[in-house]
Structure formats: C-alpha cells, structure tokens
C-alpha cells in the first residue's frame, strides 16, 4: 500500500462509529470547564485527537462495565440481610457433644428443606447437667434419611469449636430447646444466654 493510501486508511471510521445517535447531556458550567481543561491537557499528548465526546464515551463505557459488579455486590449483601439465619441450634443430651466431636456429624435432625441451602453452621445445645450451648461447627453437607416415615438429615461438619464460656439456658424453660432453632451464628456468639437468641 502506498504511503498516501495508508494515511487515508487511517482517517477512515468503522461503521459502528458512523452509526451514532446524538444525546443531550446537561452539565454544570464548572463540569464543562473541567472537561475542557482535561481535553486541552490530553490533546497536548495526542496530537489533538482527544475531544469532549471521546472522554464522555470513555466515562460511559466505564460506568456500564461497573454496573453488573455493583448489582451483584448489592444482591449478595441484601440476600444475606433478607435471610435471618445461617445456623441451626440442635438439642443434645449429655454425651451428644462427644458424639459430635468423634463422628463429625449430627444425626436425624428434622429440618425445613427450603432453609437448608442457607445453613452454614451447626450449634449444639447440651441439656442437663450443662443446660448450655457448648459447641458450633461449619456444615460440610446434609444427607437425607428416612426415620419412622419422616425425612430427616444427617449433618456432616468440620472445624468444631468449643464455646468458652458456654452459653447458659437463662430464664427460659428447657422446652424451647427441644426442637432445632434457626438463627445467625454471630447472634449466638454474642449472646449471654439462650433466651437472647430467641
């Protein structure tokens, strides 16, 4: 290609660049002044190829690229806020804590199937003589089992941690502890008694 044809080719604009629509944009005089100042500064390093439109298009491109990330982050934060639990408190008799530690699972828990996907932690309440919340663990998986014609779950766990000091029952009846309770782990760990969690 001869030099003149090469230079002419550089001036040609792609079709999508030609197919542009005009949009009204209202800016304060101060913003226009700042924009023109930026154009002037950049033009010194680009042989005058930078103009207002180019900078505005760059800004819009960056804005459009950022929107999906902002929405994803917003949905993630609000999804966690919408669900008022990430843990299940399971009742145990004395000795249950040893079973949990040695087997890394808890057995035959009746759970709401819709809530399982949000559960990340198992919390263990041990009855008499302790009558306290004593352990929590991260949930690895749930395995459904049928017991007495009812669907229940084995909960496999890891990272079992003792709560020290343990969280006493407080001034409520032990009746409240007999079935699984859904809650947030941070609420458990900041509680002074079981009654604070209800």
List strands and helices in order, with pairings.
Elements: H1 3-11, H2 15-18, H3 29-43, H4 52-82, E1 87-92, H5 96-103, E2 105-109, E3 121-126, E4 132-147, E5 150-168, E6 181-183, H6 185-189
Parallel strand pairs: 1-3
Antiparallel strand pairs: 1-6, 2-5, 3-4, 4-5
**Quick one: CATH class of the largest domain?**
Mainly Beta
Whole-number tally of structural domains: 2
Low-confidence stretches: none
Q: Give me the count of strands.
A: 6
Could you estimate the helical fraction of the residues in percent?
25-40%
Percentage of β-strand residues: 25-35%
Q: How many helices in DSSP terms?
A: 6
Verbal overview:
This protein is α+β, with helices and mostly antiparallel strands and 198 residues long. It folds into 2 domains: 16-81; 87-196, Roll (Archaeosine Trna-guanine Transglycosylase, Chain: A, domain 4). It has helices at residues 3-11, 15-18, 29-43, 52-82, 96-103, 185-189; strands at residues 87-92, 105-109, 121-126, 132-147, 150-168, 181-183. Strands 2-5-4-3-1-6 form a 6-stranded mixed β-sheet.
The gist of it:
By secondary structure, the protein is an alpha+beta fold.
Features:
198 residues; alpha+beta; 6-stranded mixed β-sheet; 36% helix; 28% strand
């Amino acid at each position: 290609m001869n030099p003149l044809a090469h230079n002419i080719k550089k001036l040609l604009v792609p079709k999508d660049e030609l197919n542009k629509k005009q949009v009204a944009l209202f800016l304060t005089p101060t913003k226009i002044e700042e924009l023109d100042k930026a154009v002037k500064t950049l033009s010194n390093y680009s042989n005058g190829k930078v103009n207002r439109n180019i900078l505005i298009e760059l800004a819009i491109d960056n804005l459009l690229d950022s929107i999906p990330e902002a929405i994803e982050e917003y949905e993630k934060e609000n999804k966690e806020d919408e669900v008022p639990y990430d843990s299940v408190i399971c009742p145990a008799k004395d000795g249950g804590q040893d079973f949990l530690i040695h087997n890394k699972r808890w057995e035959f828990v009746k759970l709401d199937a819709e809530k399982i996907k949000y559960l990340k932690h198992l919390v263990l309440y041990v009855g008499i003589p302790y009558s306290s919340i004593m352990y929590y663990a991260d949930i690895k998986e749930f395995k459904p089992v049928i017991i007495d014609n009812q669907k229940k779950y084995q909960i496999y766990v890891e990272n079992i941690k003792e709560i020290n000091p343990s969280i006493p029952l407080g001034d409520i009846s032990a009746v409240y502890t007999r079935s699984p309770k859904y809650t947030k782990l941070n609420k458990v760990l900041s509680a002074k008694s079981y009654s604070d969690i209800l």
